[in-house]
Amino acid sequence: MRFEDVATEHYRCLQRGYVMAALPYLRLLRIRDWLAYFLVATFGFIFSKGYMHSFTEISIFYLMIFLYLGFSFSINECFDIKEDKLDRSKKNPIVMGELSLKNAMIFSVILAISGTILSTFFGLKVFLFYLGLTLLSLFYSSPPLRFKSRFLLDFITHGLFFGILLFLLPVVIFNHGLTQFHYLVCLSIFHFSIIMELKNHLEDYKSDKEADLKTTVCVLGLEKSKNWAKLLIMLFPLVLFPVFLFRLYFLPFLVFTALFYLTFLIKKNYRILDIYANIIYGLLIIEVLL
Questions:
Q1: What is the pTM of this model?
Q2: How confident is the model at residue 246, as a pLDDT?
Q3: Which of 43, 105, 203, 204 is the most buried (most CB within 10 A)?
Q4: pLDDT at residue 17, rounded to an integer
Q5: Could you tell me the residue range of the domain that residue 230 belongs to?
Q6: Which of 215, 235, 234 is nearest to 225 (CA)?
Q7: Res 8: pLDDT
Q8: 3-class secondary structure for the chain?
Q9: What is the pLDDT of residue 19?
Q10: How far from 7 is each of 2, 17, 18, 172, CA to CA, in Å?
Q11: Number of structural domains the chain divides into
C-alpha cells in the first residue's frame, strides 16, 4: 500500500472518530424538540421586524437562540438522570453511558457562557435580558430550586423562559416598541407554553411519579391533569380571539377555529392543537409581513 493511501485511510478514521465522539453531544442538545420554541423566537423576530436589520445582527441573534435552546435542553438532561433511568423511551446520552455527567455539564456551561458573551454585541440591556433568561432556564432544571418539579411553578416558569421572554428577546434586541398587539400575543404564547409543559409532564407522569417528583401533574393526578389539559386546549382559541379582533384575518381565524373545535372534539388528539397553532400564528406573520 502506498504512503498516500495509508495517510488517506488514517485521515478518514480520524474523521469517523470525531463524528462518533460528537454524536452524544448532539443528542444532548435534543434539537428535534426545538421546533415550537424556535418558532416562538422567530415569531418575535418577525413581529419586531428583525428581518430589516443587518445580516450580521440577524446571524448573531439566531446563534444566540441556538445556544440558548441547546443549553436549556442539555442542562435539563443533566438533572433528569433519575427520571430518565425509569423511562426506557428516553434517549438521554448520560443515562445510556455515552457521555459522562461532568462532560455534559461542562458542555452545557460552555453553551450558556457563549450565548451570554454574544449578547453583549447588542448592548447592556440585551445582555441583562439574555442572562436573566438563561438563569431562569437553569433554575427550571437544576436544584435546589428546580422549578420543573414544583407545583404550579413548573407551568409559570415554562410559560416565561420558553414562552413570553423568548418571544420578547428579539423585541428587546431590535428595539421595537411594545404595543397592545404584542401583549396580547404574549398572553397567547404563555397559554400555549403551559399546554406544552402540561403535555410533556403527562407523557412523563409514570417516571416522574416513580422518581417522587412534585410536578403539577403528579400533585393533581393523571385524570385531573388530563381534564385540565383538555380545558386549556379548548380555551386557547378564546385567548387568541382578542389578538385577531378587528384585524385583517379575523374571518379566517373564525373558520380555522371552528374546524379546530370540531376536529378536536372528534379526534381528541393533541397534535391537532400544534397544527392549529401553526396555522393561526402563520396568519399573524403573513399580516405583519404585508
A1: 0.89
A2: 82
A3: 204
A4: 53
A5: 3-289
A6: 215
A7: 46
A8: CCHHHHHHHHHHHHHHHHHHHHHHHHHHHCHHHCHHHHHHHHHHHHHCCHHHCCHHHHHHHHHHHHHHHHHHHHHHHHHCHHHHHCCCCCCCCCCCCCCCHHHHHHHHHHHHHHHHHHHHHHCHHHHHHHHHHHHHHHHHHCCCCCHHHCCCHHHHHHHHHHHHHHHHHHHHHCCCCCCHHHHHHHHHHHHHHHHHHHHHHHHCHHHHHHCCCCCHHHHHCHHHHHHHHHHHHHHHHHHHHHHHCCCCCHHHHHHHHHHHHHHHHHHCCHHHHHHHHHHHHHHHHHHHHC
A9: 55
A10: 9, 15, 17, 52
A11: 1
159: domain CATH number is 1.10.600
CA 255 to chain centre: 28
Whether 202 contacts 215, CB under 8 Å: no
Spatial neighbors of 126 by CB under 8 A, at least 6 apart, are 119, 120, 172, 173
Q: Which parts of the chain sit beneath pLDDT 70?
A: 1-20
